[in-house]
């Protein structure tokens, strides 16, 4: 999903930023990989699909839910750290900084198909045993309202950007159908 989001941002610019986009996405995935190694899990394969890169961990659950959340945070944290490092060295007005900030923050949104949503599901799974379904339903409502808010305030940019429209439709359906 992150790739689709970055492509949406890319198409807003007339400049060719493909290398920055590729590096930002690779940094994100490398952040996940670093946390997998830190948590002493094993990667059995890495797959590529239309939504981006999917890392398949070994099926044995060596780590805890905390370890799963650390792995999920690895990608967004790598993007935010890269944005901070480049902003300090090259200045904050840099395309690479904006891409990494966007990718890091976007992936922390509470949608289930993103890292932030997976973290919320893990937390609800642990702490909300009897109220899991109710709380998950509330999170879905908040997510759809968040998207509607986003669409309202950025409607001019979204309407002229087919990638953004596809991303928003995908997010809404992923929330409703899961």
Write down the secondary-structure element order: HHEEHHHHHH
Percent in helix:
over 70%
What would the average pLDDT be, to the nearest integer?
79
**What separation lies between the terminal Cα atoms?**
15 Å
- Helix count from the secondary structure assignment: 8
What structural category do the secondary elements indicate?
mainly alpha
Largest sheet: 2 strands, antiparallel
Spatially, the strands of the biggest sheet line up as 1-2
Ranges where pLDDT stays below 50 over 5 or more residues in a row are none
Quick description:
Helices cover 70% and strands 7% of the residues. The chain is mostly helical and 178 residues long. A hairpin with a 2-residue loop joins strand 1 and strand 2 (52-57).
